[in-house]
Design brief:
This protein is 76% helix and 0% strand. By secondary structure, the protein is mainly α.
Length: 90
């Protein structure tokens, strides 16, 4: 026996409601994931900078920036992780 028009409408409404709730859940999850990743990466880059300064300054008030050190570090990180690790970025 074919479904009545009201049954079809109720089924469509239920589907639309589930679809909307799933879409909202996925979008919220993606936003939270991006926010978490950004926070972790910011902390990571800060720590990288801290370690570079620590090595460069060697306990002194000011650093005598070792050109070779930064060039080598940039080269090694670029080979391993790809773009974003030029000497000027470090």
């Amino acid at each position: 026996m074919p479904k009545k028009k009201t049954e079809i409408i109720k089924t469509e409404d239920a589907y639309d409601s589930i679809l909307l709730s799933v879409v909202e859940l996925l979008e919220q999850s993606r936003r939270l994931t991006a926010r978490s990743v950004n926070s972790i990466m910011t902390a990571t880059y800060w720590e990288i900078g801290r370690r570079i300064v620590e090595v460069e300054q060697k306990g002194e008030e000011r650093a005598e920036y070792g050109e070779e050190f930064l060039i080598r570090l940039a080269d090694d990180l670029s080979k391993r992780f790809g773009r974003g690790f030029k000497k000027s970025n470090l």
